[in-house]
């Protein structure tokens, strides 16, 4: 409705009478005063209702009736409130609305999510309503800013956005984690990554990026796994692995800075330590080889506080190992050159050391662990043909991919950032499930 003002914009209307379309998030007060906590999606805001003022304006009978109606408003009733914007340093927001009129738009009875504590399963069952709460709003604001900053960053860096297909006939990551669907009688899979298609696009357009949903039938029930999540992927022709790491570092700093610049109110609601976020923007990220990480982990495995299990060279890092390493360095850390065996088929073998690949995972500090996976891509036709055989991949499904190595192949690299992992880290949240509007996990596809 045209004449409604968003709560986020009320500071531009001090002294004016305005109308706000909102929901009653909470209510308190006694005697002649009622305080309404209003929310309209842009922010939360306090409206003050003063009985004598309504009586003065509408007369004894109508004024009293209005006050009584307001006094009995229930949680999540939708309203259009008219009032005068006042500066008020006592209110957290800095402003208040001095209510002169209120119209109920939609009633709300027995709203299930009350201001008291609720268990997380209950909240997830009511995710369609839980999204309205202050903390969830703050997280979605951060999510929105990261997406905004992502498009801005890659456009500034001369990339074009390529939308890669969701329905794919081949796999690019762990084939045991594919969701298979029946595509008119033949099996196809939901995308685990847009990477292979992005490589084709890089050969066509140079620097490209992709932002879309990906799906992994992860059987793991952890605080960092979703079965449906969103990935931001970058790929560029003639981009060395070193250059890719530089770009990843610049990109991650850029989104953190965006959140620091534009999401202060959300970071306050989330009680995020912003001095740490600022540190990640200011200080260089750490770069260490996988082999060195294994040595560090072995060296500290008997420390008193150590919670991870013994690890051997060749083993993949588990979440506790990643947590330790990310805390150890205190800044985002690239773990580079993993063993070939534990990484994806398309990664370039390290020159002179084919048991390792030219790749890196970026581990977020404070125990968050991997938020990016990236690598230089194998471009040697014969090596790649052999790998596809060795991995028992259906060769016919990769002939188009092999064409990229046949027709003007060039060195190229790229990476993928898991959006919800990044949000969980930047918001300082404990669990990935709150970083996406409607989480899908092994035991949850509703609502
Ligand atoms: O490390 P991954 O598997 O890398 C790729 O898919 C590459 N093809 C990307 C590329 O080079 N273009 O996944 C990338 C990121 C991980 O670092 C992690 O942040 C996130 O995706 N991720 C998940 N996030 C939530 N739930 C899951 N189950 C995830 N699996 C991976
Ligand atoms: Mg990975």
Automatic annotation (TrEMBL):
Gene Ontology MF terms in the entry: asparagine-tRNA ligase activity; ATP binding; catalytic activity, acting on a protein; nucleic acid binding; transferase activity
Ranges in a coiled coil: none
GO biological process: asparaginyl-tRNA aminoacylation
Subcellular location: Cytoplasm
InterPro entries for this protein: Aa-tRNA-synt_II, aa-tRNA-synth_II, aa-tRNA-synth_II/BPL/LPL, Asn-tRNA-ligase, Asp/Asn-tRNA-synth_IIb, NA-bd_OB-fold, NA-bd_OB_tRNA
Domain Aminoacyl-transfer RNA synthetases class-II family profile: 142-447
Gene Ontology CC: cytoplasm
Pfam family, one: tRNA-synt_2
Highest taxon, organism lineage: Bacteria
Keywords: Aminoacyl-tRNA synthetase, ATP-binding, Cytoplasm, Ligase, Nucleotide-binding, Protein biosynthesis
Documented EC number(s): 6.1.1.22
CDD domains: AsnRS_cyto_like_N, AsxRS_core
HAMAP family per record: Asn_tRNA_synth
Subunit structure as annotated in this protein's UniProt entry: Homodimer.
Family named by the database record: Belongs to the class-II aminoacyl-tRNA synthetase family.
Protein's recorded name: Asparagine--tRNA ligase
Organism encoding this protein: Lactococcus fujiensis JCM 16395
């Amino acid at each position: 409705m045209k004449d409604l003002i968003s709560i986020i914009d009320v500071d531009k209307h001090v002294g004016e009478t305005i109308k706000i379309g909102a929901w009653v998030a909470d209510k308190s007060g006694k005697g002649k005063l009622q305080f309404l906590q209003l929310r309209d999606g842009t922010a939360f805001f306090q409206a003050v209702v003063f009985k004598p003022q309504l009586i003065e304006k509408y007369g004894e009978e109508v004024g009293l009736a209005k006050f009584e109606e307001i006094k009995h408003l229930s949680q999540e009733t939708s309203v259009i409130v008219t009032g005068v914007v006042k500066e008020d340093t006592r209110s957290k927001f800095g402003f208040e609305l001095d209510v002169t009129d209120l119209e109920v738009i939609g009633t709300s009875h027995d709203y299930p999510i009350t201001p008291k504590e609720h268990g997380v399963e209950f909240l997830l069952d009511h995710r369609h309503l839980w999204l309205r709460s202050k903390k969830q709003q703050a997280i979605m604001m951060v999510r929105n800013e990261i997406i905004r900053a992502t498009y801005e960053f890659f456009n500034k860096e001369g990339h074009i956005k390529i939308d890669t297909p969701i329905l794919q006939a081949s796999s690019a990551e762990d084939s045991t984690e594919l969701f298979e669907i029946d595509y008119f009688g033949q099996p196809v899979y939901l995308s685990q990554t847009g990477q292979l298609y992005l490589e084709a696009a890089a050969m066509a357009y140079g620097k490209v990026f992709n932002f879309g949903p990906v799906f992994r039938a992860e059987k793991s029930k952890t605080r960092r796994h979703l079965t449906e999540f969103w990935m931001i992927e970058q790929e560029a022709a003639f981009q060395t692995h070193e250059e890719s790491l530089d770009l990843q570092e610049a990109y991650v700093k850029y989104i953190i800075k965006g959140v620091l610049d534009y999401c202060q109110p959300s970071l306050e609601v989330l009680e995020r330590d912003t001095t740490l976020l600022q540190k990640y923007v200011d200080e260089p990220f750490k770069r260490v080889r996988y082999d060195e990480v294994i040595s560090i982990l072995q060296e500290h495995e008997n420390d008193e506080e150590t919670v991870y299990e013994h690890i051997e060279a060749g083993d993949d890092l588990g979440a506790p190992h990643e947590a330790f390493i990310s805390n150890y360095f205190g800044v985002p850390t690239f773990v580079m050159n993993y063993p070939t065996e534990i990484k994806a088929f398309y990664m370039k073998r390290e020159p002179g050391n084919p048991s390792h690949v030219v790749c890196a995972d970026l581990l977020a500090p404070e125990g968050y662990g991997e938020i990016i996976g990236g690598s230089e891509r194998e471009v040697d036709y014969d090596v790649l043909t052999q790998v596809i055989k060795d991995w028992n991949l259906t060769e016919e499904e990769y002939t188009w991919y092999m064409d990229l190595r046949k027709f003007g192949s060039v060195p190229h690299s790229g990476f993928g950032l898991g959006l919800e992992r990044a949000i969980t880290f930047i918001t300082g949240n404990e669990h990935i499930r709150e970083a996406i509007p409607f989480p899908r996990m092994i035991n949850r596809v509703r609502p």
